[in-house]
């Protein structure tokens, strides 16, 4: 999914009414948001965090210093480890790590649903739909990813139920 | 909480600095683990540093750990910091790990290491200088600064990987490096071993994935459109709206040009060409043409500029040539000085004065400097073992001896310098010496000579360089050559020769000797100025007010960077010394070297006979200027660049913009109502113009030319997207829109004409005449993009600027300059004989002349029949030329009348 489309979905999920326009920069098509009151913002997770604040849902960025750092860590994981990987081995390693991390957790920060869950979900969605067969994913990941479907009415809820 | 680190893991740097900075260190336990130890249970691959929190959770991302420390100290997250951290993780780290891998694991150096990270470094530098704040995301140093500093420190602590032109990055890095938490982190991690401390860790890491399958390309990278802030747009629009009012006051033209107190006084010299060699394209781009672009640019900036050059005329080679041609040395110099002057005139080199070294002023100034050096004890006397050719009955000048280089074993080393290793050679040290004239083996004889005591002057030169180099625009090769000379230690250098044709030595016992050209040739700049104005000392004894830029190829660096400054410093007469030494690398011809004797390559006087206009030569030579590395002239590439960049990009844009004004708006610039898209384009153009200025101020001539082409590419795209030719047929709103697009486009064309002036002066003037650009706007290039063609301005007649170069034309030129002219053309059509080269040349000249006539007539809108008659003549000449060259007639295509 192109980053702009992903951000538009996020806006909807956050209940932001005004649709922003995004441009893309460079070979990796990094999204750019031109804001009205200030300089433009570049980068998927940067813009996503900005939108969360705009929607007054800052709890999605974590409440304690620890949660905040953990959220940002997984956002970074999303853009460095999940994006741009195409080999099956890479994807398998990512899923394996995530699976063992999530074994004793409901969400990435433990028990609170955050932006990290949303973006990781978006990022993994294409692999789970296109490349992988259910056998690589243990029931826990499977389950966790299904729980993650973010906000009511998101088209992704349907996607998950359709594929799995 | 517990921090796990590993010896030499680069991530420890920012983490420790952040811990120190955010004062979280007291409660922090640090454990050192092996580089392959898996600390985090859920990660397959080992990762350090890792922070284990009291909750049992792990932070395994370096940035997240740093962020956590900052959050603990009460810091609030913000968008700009997030953006920097995301950029660090996705853009900087891949580039940096490649560079560090090359440097530390593979032991590569220089550009190999810097190459992968250069763009990232420039990005930081631009952001810092644009924000005009010393830090990345706030008024004080914060998370983003610590994370980026920590990432960059291992590389940038070696000054050779911190390019000096990136001034903002430089001072940001120094500021952070001097802070206590950063210093302590650096000591802990690098242990004063520099970047090598990272080796034990990096060796165990997999090769960075960005190394695999990377495509190396010489083609210009696709320009990405930078994102614009509202502020940038507002600034650009405000500048635009000022219009002609925004032009700087024009400097009145003076003669002679003299320095003015309180102004920017720029003195520019290009290396003095040796009089009896016709310069080849490499010589032209290396000095006179490069210096010309810079001089023209300085004048456009309204800086007080003087550009000088001249022929270097003394020496044995002139004496020998005189013997050959049966003339006196002076007559030889007169003859060839005129040849040089003609060539540079043809190339449109804008010297304020083109002088020569065989003048009374030269003798006066050289002898004065010598007397001062002698009086101050900087001249030594010694007996020299010298090579003498008994057969030719004379002492051999260095350049008349060839042999095997004593340092590298190169077989064709010259007596003064080895072309291969670049080391200077004492002629008698050459192995197997040969007289270059008669090929006999010279003998060693002794003779009394004078020496410049360079070892005694070394400290002064070093001190001067230490003051001069930082922050200056000396090219990297000039810095490198000068430094390596000083490092190898200076030796006394002989400054006299057993010759007649030179500046006499004013000392008893030396009446039959002259100064060695390398002592007095660089003094030529001073004497040439003295012949230009009797107030020459205002330029040359005025280091406080004058910036001296000297242009040359890299082989001349030692004489301008060390030898002349030594003489000048030793003379203690407050001489102006070089502030910016601009040295090019070498230009090759196709796959080899230029060679006069073998007839390989294009020489200055022949360029005129190719029928290709001087501006096209200038453009292509500047486009491939050996800036940073050697480059090669290639006919095919020249054809390609002419047809793609000039014809299809630049020429096409300027012509379309002008044609729309003529065709749709009766020659009057239409009303412009800028939409936000137009303002955006205007801002992109303004930023590219700024970039052009930044580059040219740093004498990055080749790179600045790219900015011009980038702007015209934007322009073409703008026209293409907005389709004014369709809108003009639409309703009121559409016609209005067509007007705005046309108006903005023609103003961009006007801006381009001025930016192009240093590179292609004739084309620039042609555009300005077509657009009827007001004269003040032609003479000054402000830093902002102004509307210089306001609504209602009437333009002149628009016509195409460039001609297509055809394949067969280029093929025949390639053949002609390949050294094989003597061979008969193999492709001679049946029944026709190829003519001799002189005849071909004569015909080519005729074709070129006739072409000019036709173009002139067309430009003057002359009578149609008259033009047709001249065109017929031209076609006939071309036909004759094709026959003479033995080209089959079928290749004369494209002239068929339908």
Distance between the termini of chain A: 19 Å
According to CATH, the fold-level topology of the domain at 2-203 in chain B is: Glutathione S-transferase Yfyf (Class Pi), Chain A, domain 2
Report the structural category of chain B.
alpha/beta
Task: Provide a count of the helices of chain A.
Answer: 7
Distance between the first and last residues' Cα of chain B: 87 Å
Shape by Cα distribution of chain B: globular
Order of strands side by side in the largest beta sheet of chain A? Answer: 1-2-3
Strand content of chain A: 5-15%
What share of the residues of chain A lie within helices?
A: 55-70%
Fraction of helical residues of chain B: 40-55%
Q: Give the overall pLDDT of chain B as a whole number.
A: 87
Quaternary form: heterodimer
Low-confidence stretches of chain B: 211-224, 821-835, 888-898
- Across the major sheet of chain B, the strand order is 7-6-5-17-18
Strand fraction of chain B: 5-15%
Compute the gyration radius of chain A: what is it? 15 Å
Brief descriptors of the model:
heterodimer; A: 164 residues; mainly alpha; 7 helices; 55% helix; disordered C terminus; B: 898 residues; Helix Hairpins; four-stranded mixed β-sheet; globular; ATP binding (chain B); ligase (chain B); methionine-tRNA ligase activity (chain B); Met-tRNA_ligase_1 (chain B); MetRS_core (chain B)
């Amino acid at each position: 999914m192109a980053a702009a489309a992903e951000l538009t979905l996020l806006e909807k999920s956050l209940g932001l009414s005004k649709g922003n326009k995004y441009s893309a920069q460079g070979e990796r098509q990094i999204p750019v948001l031109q804001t009205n009151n200030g300089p433009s913002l570049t980068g998927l997770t940067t813009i996503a965090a900005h939108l969360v604040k705009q929607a007054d849902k800052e709890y999605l960025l974590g409440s304690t210093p620890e949660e905040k750092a953990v959220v940002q860590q997984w956002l970074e994981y999303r853009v460095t480890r999940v994006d741009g990987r195409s080999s099956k081995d890479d994807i398998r390693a990512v899923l394996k790590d995530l699976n063992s991390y999530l074994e004793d957790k409901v969400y990435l920060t433990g028990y609170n649903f955050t932006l990290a869950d949303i973006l990781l979900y978006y990022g993994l969605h294409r692999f789970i739909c296109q490349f992988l067969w259910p056998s690589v994913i243990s029931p826990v990941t499977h389950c966790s990813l299904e729980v993650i479907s973010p906000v009511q009415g998101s088209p992704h809820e349907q996607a998950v139920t359709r594929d799995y | 909480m517990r921090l796990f680190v590993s010896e030499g893991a680069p991530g420890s740097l920012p983490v420790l600095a952040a811990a120190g900075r955010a004062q979280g260190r007291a409660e922090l336990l640090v454990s050192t683990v092996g580089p392959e130890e898996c600390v985090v249970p859920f990660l397959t691959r080992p990762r350090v540093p890792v922070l284990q929190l009291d909750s049992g959770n792990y932070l395994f991302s370096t940035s997240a750990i740093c962020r956590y420390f900052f959050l603990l100290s009460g810091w609030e997250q913000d968008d700009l910091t997030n953006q920097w951290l995301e950029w660090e993780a996705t853009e900087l780290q891949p580039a940096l790990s490649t560079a560090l891998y090359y440097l530390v694991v593979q032991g590569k150096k220089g550009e190999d290491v810097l190459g992968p990270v250069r763009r990232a470094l420039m990005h930081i530098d631009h952001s810092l200088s644009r924000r005009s704040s010393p830090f990345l995301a706030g008024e004080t140093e914060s998370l983003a600064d610590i994370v980026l500093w920590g990432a960059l420190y291992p590389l940038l602590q070696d000054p050779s990987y911190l390019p000096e032109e990136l001034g903002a990055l430089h001072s940001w890095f120094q500021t952070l490096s001097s802070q206590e938490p950063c210093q302590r982190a650096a000591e802990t991690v690098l242990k004063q071993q520099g970047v090598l401390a990272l080796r034990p860790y990096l060796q165990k890491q997999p090769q960075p994935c960005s190394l695999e399958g990377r495509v190396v390309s010489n083609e210009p990278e696709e320009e990405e459109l930078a994102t614009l802030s509202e502020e940038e747009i507002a600034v650009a629009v405000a500048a635009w709206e000022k219009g002609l009012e925004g032009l700087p006051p024009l400097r009145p033209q003076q003669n002679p040009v003299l320095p003015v107190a309180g102004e920017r006084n720029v003195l520019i010299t290009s290396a003095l060409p040796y009089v009896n060699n016709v310069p080849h394209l490499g010589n032209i781009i290396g000095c006179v043409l490069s210096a010309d672009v810079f001089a023209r640019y300085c004048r456009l900036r309204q800086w007080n500029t003087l550009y000088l050059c001249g022929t270097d005329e003394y020496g044995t080679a002139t004496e020998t040539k005189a013997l050959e041609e049966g003339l006196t040395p002076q007559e030889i110099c007169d003859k060839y000085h005129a040849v040089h002057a003609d060539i540079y005139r043809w190339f449109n080199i804008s010297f304020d004065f083109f002088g020569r070294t065989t003048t009374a002023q030269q003798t006066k100034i050289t002898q004065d400097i010598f007397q001062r050096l002698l009086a101050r004890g900087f001249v030594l006397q010694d007996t020299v073992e010298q090579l003498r050719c008994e057969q030719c009955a004379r002492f051999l000048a260095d350049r008349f001896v060839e042999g095997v280089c004593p340092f590298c074993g190169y077989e064709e080393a010259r007596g003064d310098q080895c072309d291969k290793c670049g080391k200077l050679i004492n002629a008698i040290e050459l192995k197997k010496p040969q007289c270059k004239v008669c090929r006999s083996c010279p003998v060693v004889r002794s003779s009394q000579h004078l020496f410049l005591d360079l070892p005694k002057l070394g400290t002064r030169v070093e001190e001067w360089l230490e003051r001069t180099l930082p922050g200056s625009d000396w090219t990297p090769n000039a810095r490198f050559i000068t430094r390596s000379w000083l490092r190898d230690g200076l030796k006394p250098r002989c400054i006299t020769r057993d010759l007649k044709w030179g500046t006499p030595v004013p000392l008893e016992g030396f009446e039959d000797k002259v100064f060695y050209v390398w002592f007095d040739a660089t003094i030529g700049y001073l004497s040439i100025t003295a012949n230009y104005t009797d107030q020459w000392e205002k330029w040359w004894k005025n280091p406080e007010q004058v910036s001296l830029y000297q242009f040359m190829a890299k082989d001349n660096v030692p004489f301008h960077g060390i030898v002349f400054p030594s003489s000048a410093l030793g003379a203690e007469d407050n001489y102006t010394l070089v502030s910016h030494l601009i040295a090019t690398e070498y230009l090759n011809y196709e796959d080899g070297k230029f060679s006069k004797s073998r007839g390989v390559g294009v020489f200055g006087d022949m360029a005129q006979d190719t029928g290709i206009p001087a501006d096209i030569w200038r453009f292509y030579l500047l486009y491939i200027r050996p800036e940073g590395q050697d480059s090669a002239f290639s006919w095919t590439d020249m054809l390609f660049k002419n047809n793609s960049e000039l014809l299809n990009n630049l020429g096409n844009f300027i012509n379309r913009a002008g044609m729309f004004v003529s065709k749709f708006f009766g020659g009057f610039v239409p009303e412009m109502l800028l939409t936000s898209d137009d303002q955006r384009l205007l801002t992109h153009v303004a930023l590219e113009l700024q970039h052009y200025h930044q580059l040219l101020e740093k004498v990055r001539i080749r790179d600045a030319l790219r900015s011009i082409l980038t702007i015209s590419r934007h322009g073409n795209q703008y026209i293409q997207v907005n389709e004014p030719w369709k809108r003009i047929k639409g309703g009121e709103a559409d016609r209005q829109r067509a007007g705005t697009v046309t108006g903005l486009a023609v103003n961009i064309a006007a801006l381009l004409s001025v930016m192009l002036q240093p590179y292609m002066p004739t084309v620039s003037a042609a555009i300005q005449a077509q657009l009827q650009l007001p004269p003040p706007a032609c003479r000054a290039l402000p830093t902002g993009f102004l509307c210089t063609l306001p609504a209602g301005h009437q333009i002149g007649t628009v016509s195409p600027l460039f001609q297509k170069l055809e394949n067969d034309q280029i093929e025949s030129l390639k053949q002609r300059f390949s050294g094989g002219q003597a061979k008969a053309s193999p492709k001679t059509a049946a029944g026709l004989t190829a003519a001799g080269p002189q005849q071909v040349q004569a015909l080519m000249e005729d074709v070129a002349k006739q072409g000019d006539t036709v173009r002139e007539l067309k430009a003057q809108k002359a009578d149609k029949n008259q033009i047709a008659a001249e065109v017929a003549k031209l076609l006939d000449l071309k036909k004759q030329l094709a026959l003479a060259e033995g080209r089959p007639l079928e290749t004369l295509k494209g002239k068929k009348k339908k």
